[in-house]
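Box S2. Input/output pair 1.
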Amino acid sequence: MRKIISFVHISLDGFVAGPNGEMNWIKIDEEIFDHVGKRISKTDTALYGRKTYEMMENYWPAAGNKPGASKHDIEHSAWYKKTHKVVLSRTLREADLTNTTIISDNVSDRINEIKKQAGSEILLFGSPTATHSLIQQNLIDGYWLFVNPIILGEGIPLFKNVQDKTKLKLLTTRQFTCGVTELNYTVDRQ
């Protein structure tokens, strides 16, 4: 069965964005882009909440074709165009959306159907509201966290209204020269 892995940048105090959705505190450099690009290139399905999907859709399809596009923009744009996108939304409709599935109801059943299909891990990109919903339904199988060396004090938390304790098993760690630390966990379901 395919696994859903939450991929997110996080502050040391557990926030994925500032109080107004700010993400200007996130440190990203070529070292991180290259590292993330290797794993993402093996992923054939991306999962988003509506807001994150709209942000991605507004940038990535054309990013690699722009004059002076970076290596990262060219590679990620190509990946984005070919990957299957799953979006949790009550307002979006599938008409005119290429290679995209919209899930608006029966989330648990629909996600479990997708997890049973052939393919690689499913990466859940950012999307705090979608992440909170999937955590409550016990649908996330792992966390790929990039801990940024900053304390925000307030903002949008990664973990919100968690009902039950969730045990995690640390798979890998990596420190990047910019000060970000990668923590790769799997949910321990035993």
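Box S3. Input/output pair 2.
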Amino acid sequence: MKAILAGGGTGGHVIPALAIAEELRKQYGAEVLFIGTARGIENRLVPAAGFPLKLIEVGTLNRVSWKTRLKTFAGLPTAVLAARRMLKEFRPDVVIGVGGYASGPAMLAAVLGRIPTVAFEPNVVPGFANRVVAHWVSAAAVHFEETARYFKNAKVTGVPVRQAFFETASKTPGQPTLLVFGGSQGAHAINRAMIESAPVLRERIPDIRIIHQTGERDYNDVQAAYASFGGSAEAHRFIDNMPSYFAQADLIVCRSGASTVAEITAAAKPAVFVPFSRAADDHQKRNAEALERACAAVMLEESNLNCESLVNTATSLFADQTRLTRMGEAASKLAHPDAARDIAAMAARLAGLKD
């Protein structure tokens, strides 16, 4: 069996794709090729995981000038032709589009070549690449039930996350702990709000412990602020073993990208989501709303994020342990421990392999 995984750009696209690729190789002995672009994180992660990567040139469409959009549209036929040459050379049995820059051209090339296709969509509202190919793909693997309406032959599989998140033990009662992060680069709006909020949180919850991944940009400012008020607060530029920090947390404040949402549900943790306001198609807000409707999280929009709103939200949740427990239980009901296996099986069936 030969499979192509196309797309990338961010960890939210690439990390689940790698999990699917590993499952294809493990369960079906598949030969896997990735197709991405030169500016995506796939250039670092894919070779490090031991998979070959080929690159095509694709422009951007989100939050750019109309001139850039026109240039991108003008270059799409060339990108599709480049992808089609790669498909003819590799001869895949199935192509899986994971969203991001390279996904659209590669999936269109597969559709034109009558090669079975799977669209993987982790967000409530599909990204541009998946919206373009939605009506032509053979099947779709989605995270949310409401996303299935955009595709034919869609199945709710969830988003692949590391097994360690599912093995996060329930925290024993004790020091109330708040985990704050904004992705590998940090989130400036969250960081600034935490600098103002930390002393007030300590006044209202004297024994609170704060664990904060800041990213590189704001680390020094956050570290200095925490040192000055003397509470139990620690700043980290990066956190490599995130599941271990999830295990220590009673409540998490974070963005609501698809991978983060999947990790929250896998670990069964209550969360306050602060959606990135400039995310494509406002997909982070849609993700946060989906968990808020399920009573698994609270959404605090970035436009309303300040010391008062963050402190009031966090203190009211810490004061209601029953609600925190119920939020965690609601989150766990949205988890999908077999996501990578289910997506790989879907691709294998389309490739002609029997279960």
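Caption for Box S3: The radius of gyration is 21 Å. Residues 260 and 335 are 12 Å apart (CA to CA).
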